[in-house]
Amino acid sequence: MKLFEIQILVFVALLFVCPSFVHGWGVDGHLTVCRIAQPRLSEAAANAVKDLLPASADDDLGSLCSWADRVKFHYPWSSPLHYIDTPDNLCTYLYSRDCKDENGIKDRCVAGAINNYTSQLLSYGKDAASQHNLTEALLFLAHFVGDIHQPLHVGFTSDKGGNTIDVHWYTRKTVLHHVWDDNIIETAEQRYDNSDVDELIDALQKNITAEWADKVKTWETCSSGKPPCPNVYASESIKAACNWAYKGVSENSVLEDDYFLTRLPIVNLRLAQGGVRLAAALNSIFG
Ligand SMILES: *[C@@H]1O[C@H](CO)[C@@H](O)[C@H](O)[C@H]1NC(C)=O
Ligand SMILES: *[C@@H]1O[C@H](CO)[C@@H](O)[C@H](O)[C@H]1NC(C)=O
Ligand SMILES: *[C@@H]1O[C@H](CO)[C@@H](O)[C@H](O)[C@H]1NC(C)=O
Fold first, then answer.
1. Given this structure, which CATH class describes domain 3-286?
2. pTM value?
3. Which residue's alpha carbon is nearest to atom 4 within ligand 1?
4. Is the CB–ligand 3 distance for residue 188 below 6 Å?
5. Domains of the chain, residue spans
6. C-beta 32 within 6 A of ligand 3
């Protein structure tokens, strides 16, 4: 084999083992959301999660929190379920107007998917044989509650949530969407956490019990109905997308410390809210 062919093979192999090439919070973002959620589960929810996870996961929801990104290739129908496109520059979200795929098919967006997999999981322990694969329902739900908290997963239609906006992250070329999936988290890990995602998770957990302790109750509850309340999370995301992600950014912007230092608190908050709300949803579903 020629060297060039080997390089192509290695690159293709890397695409499969590094799901951060595809969009959604990157692997560390999703891992963080699931790791924050799991210790907050009630006994009933913890038992259901343990029962539904494949044995290979060793009762660690985090290890499969990016499963939904890895199956996009085998389940192409699931791709539109990771995000919501809202009208350009409007900075609002409405389920009836926005939750559809590119062909206009209703409910095919991340908010519709959260409702779908929540209602499937509500059949756990009730029907002798559910018509749905509840292991997949759990893995989709855990992933999508993370995605809906990534501000640019509820972004503008024409730029595909920042995927078509080229920027530089310090000296590297990337797109705005990827900055919010991965780069802000990676730079924070390198600077503050010894490049270790566990240190980031610990720091967020400390803030959940201290700085944010008064707010956690309001994150966990929905003003109407039981958690999850994806319409609330999506409305918060498009507001954060307008106020922070898109703000001051244009084609070929160079994003450096000014951007990183002011946006990192938003990323930290959204990861913490995602984790707290995933636990609240599972606790409500499994009773
Ligand atoms: C609901 O879940 C089923 C099973 O995974 C899937 O086929 C369907 O596309 C999902 N629909 C939505 C809107 O999430
Ligand atoms: C449910 O989905 C998982 C993950 O895709 C798969 O490994 C398992 O075989 C499925 N279970 C059934 C009963 O189809
Ligand atoms: C935790 O809260 C402190 C004080 O507000 C803040 O400086 C720090 O950046 C926060 N860390 C995380 C990971 O949220």
1. mainly alpha
2. 0.92
3. 132
4. no
5. 3-286
6. no
